[in-house]
Amino acid sequence: MAEVLAGTGVSWTFDPDGLRMRFERTSKIARLLQELGERVIPFSAIEAATLTPGKRGTVVLTLTPRIGADPLMIAAAGQLKESQDPYRLVLPRDREVLAEYYRDEIRGLLTEPGPLAEPVVEGPSAPRSFKGWDGQASFDGEVVRFKWYWSGASTRKYSAGDQEFPVSAIDGVEWRTPDVFDGHLRLRLHGAPSSEPPDKDPASITIGMGTGLTHESLPLAAAVVAAIHRRKSAAPAEPERPAPDTAAEAEPQEQEGPGAIADRIREAAGLRDEGLISEEEFRAKKAQLLTEL
Hints:
Number of strands: 14
Oligomer: single chain
Strand content: 25-35%
Helix content: 25-40%
Shape: elongated
Largest sheet: 4 strands, antiparallel
Low-confidence stretches: 247-255
Distance between the termini: 65 Å
CATH topology of the largest domain: PH-domain like
Structural class: alpha+beta
Strand order of the largest sheet: 1-2-3-4
Radius of gyration: 22 Å
CATH architecture of the largest domain: Roll
């Protein structure tokens, strides 16, 4: 197979061992797909292929990836909208016969179904970064860094200071879409499970309200997932580096009293008066600080 199936802004090229998905920079497709650019999906990553009627005279060729096959889908954990799903190709109905042919060809090339222990699809490349509500997250391929914003970070996080987490200290990534109230990206650390809410956990960065949009935060989360699995595959016997003791670092500062909180409110007011933050940002920060009294 060497033909191309092309939809609006998306094309799939079929090769002997898999398919190459290309996503154009066009407003006609989701920004997440635009950010992905191009992906190579081996047939060993696919569980099933289906063809269903679409909307307004279209058909939809959908591939179901095997659990654990794709770092992007591991990180997304079922939260993507249909328009953001890279495994859906919407075609005009006049290409239905061709789509049926490739659906059947794919089905004939599928290996045994079931979960995979390690991904077989490459994750998004690093470095990557995005701005969250309470700080900036970055990943250079080896270390995840959170740099807190004074105006957005809780006292708990601000007291803990900016954070650095080597891949060797991370067990997994929890990404919660920014389309919901409690959107966040949380790192699950070796031997350091956290029950704190994301806005107080120094191993989490909160997203939403226009920050950490899916096309920015999810590729970073997926890149970290891919790096974790690469490290485990390359050096399974290597001793794990201990996770940063964020709780111990923050605890001495956790006891800020009313005076310290009042000082931070006054500082925020000064920033507002100087035009460095808006009235809305000042009120949000003041409300947050008052809840910590």
